Structure formats: structure tokens, C-alpha cells
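Re: that backbone. C-alpha cells:
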């Protein structure tokens, strides 16, 4: 079975170190998977419209090149966060693919 045919497993680490392991179908975005599984710290106030930053996550270095680069709208929203880091992304902008299987993302504390 290839990486694109499996149900990817993504682990979310919340600000209080709570680990939520999510097995989800490819094609959803990380925000949808997080909200469906009640991941603490992912509020998704705009429901994935890239109009807030309440789905802010930190992507691990080893997966950074497996996701598309952010667009101007996402960068604009992240620039307003006090807790932005070099691998900060909005989870609503990252589509889950088989290549992301095993990824561990961190949900930072709110700023």
C-alpha cells in the first residue's frame, strides 16, 4: 500500500502537552481533522476561511517540504501573532496527504 492510499495518522500536541492521535482521510485539512477530534487549542473561529489565526500550529522540520508554501493571506495572519515561529502555519491551509502520515504537530499557547 502506498503512502497516498493509507489513512494518515497525525498527532497533535496541545499547549498543556495533551497528545491527540487522529487517523483521518486524505483530502481534509489539518484544521478539520483537529476540530472533528476536539484537539485543544484549535478553535477555528473562521471555519477554515483563512480569516483568523485560531488554528495556528507548528509543523516539524522534517515535514516542512512536504506541504505547499504559504500564500500571502496566511503569512499576513501569522505576522500578527506574538507566538509565531519559523514553522508556524495555519492548519486550515494544509491538506492532509499520505505523505503526512506520522506527522506530529504542536499547538502553541495562545499569545
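Recovered sequence:
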Amino acid at each position: 500500500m502506498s503512502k497516498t492510499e493509507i489513512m494518515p495518522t497525525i498527532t497533535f500536541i496541545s499547549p498543556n502537552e495533551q497528545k491527540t492521535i487522529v487517523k483521518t482521510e486524505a483530502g481534509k485539512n489539518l484544521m478539520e481533522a483537529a476540530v472533528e477530534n476536539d484537539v485543544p487549542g484549535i478553535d477555528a473561529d473562521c471555519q477554515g476561511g483563512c480569516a483568523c489565526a485560531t488554528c495556528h500550529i507548528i509543523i516539524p522540520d522534517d515535514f516542512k517540504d512536504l506541504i505547499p508554501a504559504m500564500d500571502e493571506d496566511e503569512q499576513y495572519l501569522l505576522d500578527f501573532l506574538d507566538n509565531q515561529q519559523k514553522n508556524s502555519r495555519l492548519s486550515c491551509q494544509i491538506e492532509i496527504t499520505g505523505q503526512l502520515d506520522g506527522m506530529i504537530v504542536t499547538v502553541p499557547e495562545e499569545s
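The first helix runs from residue 30 to 36. The chain has a mean pLDDT of 93.
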